[in-house]
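Bench notes, afternoon.
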Amino acid sequence: MASFIKNSVMRTPLRAVWEVSGCQTETLLWPAKATKNKTILVFIPGNPGLVEYYTSFLERVHTSVASPSFEIIGVSHKGHSINYHEDNKDKGVYSLQDQIQHKVDCLDTLIKQNDPDTRFILMGHSIGSYISASVLKERPNHGISRIVALFPTLREIAITPNGVQINRLVNTIPSWVFGATGSVLSCLAPPFRQYLVKLFTGQSGEGLQVTAHQLLHSNVLKNVITMARFEMDTVKALDHDFYTEHLDKFIMYYSANDQWAPKDHYDYMLKHFPKGKYTILKLDIAARSTLFFKKRDISPNSHYQPNARSLQFDDSLRLSVDAYNKTMYLHLSPNYDLFHPQAVVHQEGKSVRINPSDYRVYRGYVVDPIYSDHYWISGFDDNNMEDQPGILGWARITVRNDI
């Protein structure tokens, strides 16, 4: 693996360019400390295919495992990054099958660079789950021990709620229009481009940075749209024979409100493959916690928090609290509906009315540590949690903006 890396920095994740079958591939790498008996998790993103969207999510996965033999490598899709087109002088676009072959090549390269006893876990989000399953089809006896499918689009993607809309969009508007739009946006001053993205998408933090400065490029957008077209045409009926044979290798996570892999996809799998491992969550953990980057764990020491930045108005927070000889967690979500119009503070013996623009208001839930990671990753209904397991209480919390 090391022989394929250039321009890396010595902190995790390592941001590297990996040469795979002659293709310059952008990656995120959390290397294992051990050199033998490794387990390598290969993460395959959904469309738009930029692995940088998943940095925080993968960091949490790496931290939660904390094994010296555990390694993570996340790979961007072929042609879905600016550097690919600049380094390769390639303006081509790639199909879904091209992306599958690219991931097969990634696996083959990793197999050559590691010991024969290395175990591989493929983790895919959305169409990345379909690609992961396709890699297993191509390499059924090459050390793939598990596939973790996050909100998987494994069948009939064109008739899902989002699929219907996207199918209409990509088959109505030519690819060159998206490319031209990317060309115009890429010519804007970076701060102004970032402002426009935040205005129209509501993104913040690292997700905003990725969209504004890596996604909005002519060739990248054309590849995103081209891949979407192929997804609609390719992902049809489920291969029942394949899943019957390999069901024991799959762990699938669905969302109650996902519009790409709706709940009826979960129901379908449960009906046809009742012995499978399925979990249904309230929110898309990959999208909520990485694509939009609105969640922050707060540590009293910034050295323990990677990529520290200033607190944003729309950030959710998690604080650890030690009380009664026990550690609990306080989950804070911004909720300005809780602001009391008559709220006052006492200063120098006087009651002063609070100016809403000077404060942030949060609904704070006290959560048992056993349940904290689950709620933090999966999300929860901010207004309907009092009776849920592990919720010990809640409070309205008002914080000055200058703190």
